[in-house]
Amino acid sequence: MKIFQPAVLAACALLVAGTACAQAGPLALHDLPVGKPLRAVPECARTQAQGTWTYAGRYRNECIEWLVPGRQPPAERSEIHRIYLPSPPALSKGSYVNLEVGNDGTLMQTVVMTRGLATQAQDLASLITLYGRPAVNRVVTVKDDDTGKTIAPIHAEWTLKDGSMVIFWGKTADIETGGVGIYSPASTREILEERKRDALKEAASK
Hints:
Layout: E1 46-49, E2 52-55, E3 63-65, E4 81-84, E5 96-101, E6 107-113, H1 120-131, E7 136-139, E8 142-143, E9 150-151, E10 154-159, E11 165-169, E12 179-183, H2 185-205
Antiparallel strand pairs: 1-2, 3-4, 4-5, 5-6, 6-12, 7-10, 8-9, 10-11, 11-12
């Protein structure tokens, strides 16, 4: 499974049993609840040239861009797709949401890209309004790949009662935007198992 999240998250500490969980349910920022079948969405307009299909881009109506045009549902869990929304979430930089769909059509994760450092405080405040106090809330110091300057993006996580997880990052080192990821219970388990393996490897190397 490919987790659509920046590399900086790999350095985050494991969630400790007993940390506060958000009181809210698995609220979807964009009417795309994870852990449930993806609702029917028409495929975006596409054109064919020299036997290759490509998407037209710039859509007025809700539609989905599959990683491979015309393939629905996807054949591989690791594929990240994009759904365009006429009314995207307020904190979204673009008009689309990245998503991963399981082989059975279940929505495994959704990621909204934010405007980065400029709005990270207000984005975090909006998420706290939705999900309550985060279990993880810290500032991660990293070097910006473009400017070489040290930046301090916020990293926050919420563990929801149904076992799903919300992860917010203010900005990554290699892209201008930040993001909000919502992960299904199955995806959350895989994230936590991967973190445990990474922690064991790090401990063994010392």
